[in-house]
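Why predict the complex rather than its parts? Because the way molecules touch one another can change local conformation, and only a joint prediction can capture that. The input here totals 975 residues.
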Amino acid sequence: MSQPAVQPVPASPTPEGGHLLEVRDLHVEFRTGEGVAKVINGVSYHLDAGETLAVLGESGSGKSVTAQAIMGILDTPPAHVRAGQIRYRGRDLLGQSEEQRRQVRGKEIAMIFQDALSALNPVFPVGWQVGETLRQREGMSRADARARTVELMDLVRIPAAASRLGDYPHQFSGGMRQRVMIAMALALNPKVLIADEPTTALDVTVQAQIMDLLADLRRDLDMAMILITHDLGVVAGVADRIAVMYAGRIVEHADVRSLYRAPAHPYTKGLLESIPRLDVRGQALSTIKGLPPNLMRIPSGCPFHPRCPYVQQVCVDVVPHDLVLGDGRTSACHFAQEVHDDSAR
Amino acid sequence: MLRFILRRLLQMVLAFFGTTLIVYALMFAGQGDPIQALAGERPVTAAQRAYLTEKFHLDATGVGGFFYRYFDYLKNLLQGDLGQSLTGRQIGDILAAAWPVTVKLALIAMAVTIVFGVTAGVIAGIRRAGIFDNATLVLTLLVLGIPTIVLAPLAQYLLGVRWQLFPPTAGADPDLYALLLPGIVLGSLSLATALRLTRTSVAENLRADYVRTARSKGLVKRRIVGVHVLRNSLIPVVTFLGVELGNLMSGAIITEGVFNIPGVGFNLFRGIRTEDGPLVVGIVSVLVVVYLVSNLVVDVLYAVLDPRIRYE
Amino acid sequence: MSDFETVAATENQAARRGPSGEPGAPDQVGVPRKPRSLAGDAWRDLRRKPIFWISLFLVVLVAAMAAVPALFTANDPRDCVLSRQHAGPSGGAIFGYDFQGCDTYARAVYGARASLLVGALSALFTGLIALTVGMLAGYFGRWVDALLSRVIDIVLGIPLLLAAIVLLKRVSTSSDNVRLFAVIFVLAVLGWTTAARVVRSSVITAKGQDYVAAARMLGAGNGRIMWRHILPNALAPAIVVLTIALGSFIAAEATLSFLGIGLKAPTISWGIDIDAGRVHMREAATPLVVPSAFLALTVLAFIMLGDAIRDAFDPKLR
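Output of the joint prediction:
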């Protein structure tokens, strides 16, 4: 199959003042026979070179959909990007042709998925699958691709990599499979790695190994990383900043330390309080009451108000804007300051 | 892989004994006069009676006698000695002349199935719920719902007799053109099934997680569909086609009978019509073996295509 | 805190009720539809499908023909006069006469009885075997399941037409009724496997449900659990499979009769008439086309009916 020559992406430095990757006011909806689900409702976040942003939220909060919108791999239909911008190195990806976006995938921004067993093609050997990226995108010969594949699999610490090239995904353990996924994502030296719940399907001990590996790789290869997770425990050691999502919106955005020290949104506060802690004894573990909202019928005003212990009439009537709370952190809550002060106490 | 094949082979040998025993028992056990059962309503001459008695060891009686006779029949079957039909011809000779025709017909039907069924199935699967998809769904339902005994004579009448696009009957030594219409009729059922199977399989695989991965690798769409999706989607289709080839060889009784094609099915058709018991038993035994072997081939094929089975 | 709870509670209620506030209003967008049963959903879906009504109409029509053929034709299908051979339409014989000088239309009408009888009884016996085997295999599991599943595999591996040829050769000289039941027997004995697999898997699903565990804890015996709690769940999918099977049994009967090993004259069967019409198609086509059309429409009607019901019960399959 003839491939269009791989176009070298101009190594333009990040435009002055801009970010490496920036999502601006993104709106995505799913149009199905049942109705329209507003999955993403004005998400904005950014990522600078070399940093790790954690995107936190329950399933259905839109964190994976945002990532897939960045990659341009949403299933359209049913998904439709209704509004917004996704700027990479200053250019809006949403305005680009499919061919231009394809060039970005893997080479500039790469992604790994939650369940490596289903994310890998079951009928091809893993070596073939990692090598395919190199052969198809870089035009490498079979032998070169093979050599590079072994390098990549060594890099992600797969033991005896050379002898496992011919094995199929189902012959690997869960952790090893995820390493194969990572090796595949790294094949084209991407500048941004999106990890979508990379450890959710794994055993706890393996989870830690994979998180360590990701953190090491990010530093050694000087990538930026978006880490999507619903697990606050995973985030703490790895992320620089955290964006908390709820009902398709960013409800709180802060650097890791200040967010852990004093959350400024009732939802984040609830999440933190629902983590079992070793240092606090004799206190009942609290949970967030109620269920995540139906995205076809998002509650009026602040979408969190039916579950919020701080709820007032204003929350039902008015959609809260991002409130800036010093040192760059924001919270989309009418009572952000009070929540923050409560938590800091 | 080798162990898998050996296990399958062992299962096939067991199935072979089981099926032939059933066929044999049904033909001979508990009959008042087994020779008359073989001959049906036809009068049996003394010479035929003597031949059949000797051929099937009908003088041995009881359960022991039955198994003696069964193993003798098996031995003959495995040696390729199928005996004589009531018309006095060697059944082996009849089959030797008939096989090439049947294989040719089955291959035409298979080609029709693959070229039209699988291709249309892939297109329908990619454009699910489109006009093409819905049209093929209705069309295949019609084909699946119309029995061969309706389709074959009607095709013969309309395309052969009325509009004269094809020769209505094939005759003694049919050429490819004469086999084309019967081949299409024979293949239409497998075509419809293959189409539906391919469509479902492609549509399911297009939604699989690995497709998302392939897209995030930045592969072109043609490669994602043509390599990743197709390779997975065709596993059940190829398996079905393998089973179907066995069916086509043994299932051409109606088509070969209607179009007068001197293949295996036609001889079976004639054997049934003329109540030629030995011919029917001989051909059915061989067809059962063909059927079992094709099932084995399909299983091995399945293992070759799907690594998850191969290394189980 | 209490504020929050009331808000949450009303919100939940509203969500359950749907925008119009009417409990269980049909087709509310994106609302969990708890109060409606699967059968109710399926019926709502079916009601709007023309293909369902068309096939149901055809099935009822053929059933009426089988029950009271005299309602559809005044002529006697066995009143054959050679002098009328291939004569045109006249006196109620709207499709004319066949090679033997019989009324083509009357024969097609009277042919419905044998076809439907064979189809319905084969489906009935198939259903009984399938329910028994599927229930035992699914409910008791372990070696019972292993054994019965192997039996299913073996029977499934027997080519239907070949086995039927061998089996039916044995009754080739018997009386009409014996042949009729032999055909039914052959079709039931060879045709139950698909339905049994369907029953088995739905039994396995039902067995894991909470209400079955609850019934067991309340002291219900195996027999009662199977009869009262599991059978109703296995019935719907089994009926769908059997509806489709009924169509293919009718086709199989016609095929066997066509070959000359199923029903034989004087029994009237579409398969026999198609074969007779086929031989003389060059002289007259209607004696071939009319029974062919009756057979094809009947088989199609049952298959489409089963297909429509299955789609309604399981939209995922589409």
